[in-house]
């Protein structure tokens, strides 16, 4: 469980770092164009940076996995719906990485944080 938490979080945290340092203005703008309050777009920093940090240390991992999965679901619906049945230039599924993060976050939500975590033994929503 630790290895799953770590590798998913490690990969995702780089996406969040870019938004943390450069801002999530483009996402906020896309939401604004859709009639959704643009400040919600900054939630991507929580889903791509804060949640992965929580996964690495194993604190509230189930919740963090759900947050990360929800973030990926929103990305899929906002930007990648046309890619679901597509193949990339490299011959892979076009949304392969997005799907790995989405399903991996759900797996963590179902499995919990495991033996090596800060919230070990603190109840069902560790």
Features:
126 residues; mainly alpha; 5 helices; globular
How would you describe the overall organization of this protein?
This protein has one domain. Helix content is 63%, strand content 0%. The protein has helices at residues 2-22, 25-33, 44-57, 61-79, 96-111.
The Rg value, from CA coordinates, equals: 15 Å
Count of individual domains: 1
For the secondary structure, the number of strands is 0
Beta-sheet strand percentage?
Answer: under 5%
In short:
Helices cover 63% and strands 0% of the residues. With 126 residues, it is mainly α.
Blueprint of the fold:
Blueprint lengths: L1 H21 L2 H9 L10 H14 L3 H19 L16 H16 L15
């Amino acid at each position: 469980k630790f290895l799953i938490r770590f590798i998913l979080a490690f990969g995702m945290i780089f996406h969040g770092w870019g938004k943390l340092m450069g801002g999530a203005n483009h996402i906020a703008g896309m939401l604004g164009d859709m009639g959704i309050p643009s400040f919600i777009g900054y939630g991507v920093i929580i889903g791509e940076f804060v949640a992965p940090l929580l996964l690495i240390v194993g604190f509230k991992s189930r919740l963090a996995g759900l947050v990360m999965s929800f973030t990926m679901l929103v990305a899929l619906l906002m930007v990648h719906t046309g890619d679901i049945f597509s193949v990339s230039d490299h011959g892979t599924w076009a949304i392969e990485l997005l799907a790995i993060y989405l399903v991996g976050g759900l797996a963590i939500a179902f499995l919990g944080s495991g033996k090596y975590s800060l919230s070990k033994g603190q109840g069902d929503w560790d």
